[in-house]
Amino acid sequence: MSALVIEDVAKSFGGVSALRGVTLSLEAGKRLVLLGPNGAGKTTLFHAISGNIIASSGRITLFGRDITRLSPDARARLGLARTFQITNLLVNLTVIENILLAICGARELTFRFMRPLGSYRDIQVRALALLDEWGLASVGHQVVRNLSYGDQRQVEVVMALAGEPKILLLDEPTAGLSPAETLRVVEMVRKLPRHMTILMIEHDMDVAFEVADWIAVMHRGAMIAEGDEAAIRANKQVSDIYLGLE
Questions:
Q1: Which of 58, 62, 129, 237 lies at a CB distance of 3.0 to 4.6 Å from 8, suitable for a disulfide?
Q2: Domain range holding 145?
Q3: How many CA atoms lie within 13 Å of 28's alpha carbon, on the beta-carbon side?
Q4: CATH number at residue 200
């Protein structure tokens, strides 16, 4: 069954075409990495999938349901979660406070005025379990702004997992990380449950080959190649783009 189907999706901003007839299908439980140089349209496509922007034309379906014009929160309720290219954390709160708020958002809970956040016992148990599962228990009570950038990226992934999504969009989770931090995030992605469908933007081909079942390559707003590692490595157009020959 297809988890996500993108059919001839286009997006223009004024006279600029950011997406040009993008078509892509992702089977449930698969891990697809979207490669491409800066300006290829990868993040714009993510915005169209998650509802941060509405496609100018085309169709997007999630598990068979048309979500092309749904709001981001409606898409989240259908099981879609995402991270962002730049971390989207509340940096003046602790790690566990960020996780608690993510769980509450996923469960559409509201707080009673002046009731301590820690009094929501079941939510706190869930937050602690997530931190423990993903090796972040030791930093749970640290303020986010004091964490390394690599740890912040991991916290953001855990926040996306708080709602137990069916499909997870990861927007360059290794961007700006050191080699050691990149390895930690790659390992985290590889440990995500196989029943979860993953679409990940990446600029580093080596990282893509580490985690992907299938790879798609974008350039100048269009999809130019799809395939496994061998097919992508052998594709001359992809090589030319990454070597700056096109």
A1: 58
A2: 87-164
A3: 11
A4: 3.40.50.300
Tally of domains within the chain:
2
Residue 222 β-bridge partners: 219
Which tokens in the block code for residue 48?
Answer: 């169209």
Q: Does 100 share its domain with 52?
A: no
Helix, strand or coil, per DSSP, at residue 40: coil
In contact, 8 and 222? CB cutoff 8 Å? no
Distance of CA 143 to the CA centre of its chain: 23
Cβ atoms of residues 38 and 220 within 8 Å:
no
**Half-sphere exposure of residue 64, counting CA atoms within 13 Å on the CB side?**
1
Structure tokens that stand for 174 in this block: 């290794």
**Mean model confidence pLDDT for the chain:** 88
Tell me what pLDDT residue 115 has. 57
Is the per-residue pLDDT at 30 higher than 50? yes
**93 and 156 part of one domain:** yes
Query: What are 117-170's pLDDT values in tens digits?
Result: 555 678 888 889 999 988 889 998 999 999 988 889 889 989 889 888 999 999
pLDDT value, residue 106: 74
**Listed residues 135, 164, 193: the one ending a domain:** 164
State the DSSP code for 147.
Answer: S
Percent of the chain with pLDDT over 70: 92
User: For the chain, how big is the Rg over CA atoms in Å?
Assistant: 18
By the 8 A CB rule, do 96 and 103 touch?
Answer: no
Q: Are residues 75 and 171 in the same domain?
A: yes
